[in-house]
Specification:
Elements lengths: L1 E5 L2 H18 L4 E4 L6 H12 L9 E4 L1 E3 L10 H8 L11 E2 L8 H14 L5 E4 L21 E4 L2 H7 L12 E4 L2 H5 L4 E5 L5 H9 L17 E6 L7
Parallel strand pairs: 1-10, 2-3, 2-6, 3-5, 6-9, 9-10
Antiparallel strand pairs: 4-8, 7-8
Helix pairs in contact: 1-2
Bound molecules: 2-amino-2-deoxy-6-O-phosphono-alpha-D-glucopyranose (GLP).
Length: 241
């Protein structure tokens, strides 16, 4: 586990973009595991800037996103497909057919989860998986539980997560109660994990997840068992260490 401490959010975004860009440069046909949430937005902005400067080429890149809300259409402005289009895909030359986000509208969500696992397998797994972290240590939408869910699955969101995400919706009732998310096995099989964390409000969970016991009650703690994890965090997020 390697921790990169940066001064602030902008420096965190720049360092995380450096690491992701290095994957694209060294392996132009790499498979990027991508994440949503507010934390990686600055990183995506930096990647777009480098693409515009001709530094990065996404034409052979494939992407797989971690998760999607159940019941939101790709055109819904809070869906994760919309987020990815808006914050990255629409601004770089990744081929639309090479981008993957679970289908939140699938009539049979279990079948959609099985299909998604097959997509990841058929791509040979991810070269790097970007992860943000929820305040309760969730990764993707793997919420605290009594076991680590393995493959892509449907999950009931916890009240904490619904509360945290309510700011993006008109009312709390509008926040979907379920999501489709990659499981912990999908995440752990990535060849490199890139965790991005920012802000003092994340300091307690950073300490718990990376320096506390490995437990499904803190899903991110499993990352301590991965051989190749880079944590890029600003000083505020590391302030409890
Ligand atoms: C959501 C996403 C996670 C993300 C988390 C933290 O619940 N499913 O993938 O890591 O929010 O988001 P933020 O970066 O806004 O704190």
């Amino acid at each position: 586990m390697k921790i990169y401490s940066t001064k602030d959010y902008d420096a965190m975004s720049r360092k995380a973009a450096d690491i992701l860009a290095s994957h694209v440069i060294l392996k132009p046909d790499c498979v990027l595991g991508l994440a949503t949430g507010s934390t990686p937005i600055g990183m995506y902005k930096q990647l777009i800037e480098w693409y515009n400067q001709g530094v990065l080429d996404f034409s052979l890149v494939h992407t797989v996103n971690l998760d999607e809300y159940r019941g939101l259409a790709p055109t819904h402005d809070q869906s994760y497909r919309y987020f990815m289009q808006h914050n990255l895909f629409d601004h770089v030359n990744v081929k639309p057919e090479n981008t993957n986000v679970p289908n939140g509208l699938a009539a049979d969500p279990e079948a959609e989860c099985a299909r998604y696992d097959q997509v990841i397998d058929s791509l040979g797994g991810t070269d790097v998986q970007v992860l943000g972290m929820g305040h309760n240590g969730h990764i993707g939408f793997n919420e605290p539980a009594d076991h680590f869910p393995l493959g892509t699955h449907v999950v009931d969101l916890t009240d904490t997560t619904i509360d945290a995400n309510a700011r993006f919706f008109a009312t709390r009732d509008d926040v979907p109660k379920q999501a489709l998310t990659m499981g912990v096995k999908n995440i752990m099989q990535s060849r490199h994990i890139l965790v991005v964390v920012s802000g003092a409000d994340k300091a307690p969970i950073v300490k718990k997840a990376f320096f506390g016991p490995v437990t499904p009650q803190v899903p991110a703690s499993i990352l301590q068992l991965h051989p190749n994890v880079s944590i890029v965090a600003d000083e505020a997020a590391l302030s409890a260490l």
